[in-house]
Specification:
Number of helices: 6
Structural class: mainly alpha
Shape: rod-shaped
Protein name: Helix-hairpin-helix domain-containing protein
Largest sheet: none
Helix content: 40-55%
Distance between the termini: 71 Å
Amino acid sequence: MNIDTIVTEQYHGKSPRELVDCPLTALSGIGEKEAQALQDAFQVKTIGELARHQAIANAFAIEMMAAPGSLSASETAKETLLDDAVEMTFPASDPISVDAGITRIEVAPEKVEAARDHQNASAIAAHNEEACGQTNVGTPQTQSKDVGTA
């Protein structure tokens, strides 16, 4: 923002730090009459005092909350519930379902439980036994190399 567009010509070139202590008449659109009315109503004399006034801060906050793109109360509530649900599932690898029709996810029957059968070792051993006549997994010769065998 070009600060010279919001202050009167007399105050062009001043830094924001200097403008904070300038009278209200330094702002474009505020003459002596408006400055006196603001002083009477809010007891403010400078740009900084006006900016820090609680009523002005509250009005600005309401304006920002009403800006396009802000959520309604029900949208905010739904967004909060969804955020909470995501937090409760973290660090899940799959995102949660937003569709209420899904009640649970079942493991496909062909999936191997990795905790009990690392890299599907039992199926490999069965295949090796069928093809070669021996398992080649869990034998005394390979036991030191086998992972997850007891």
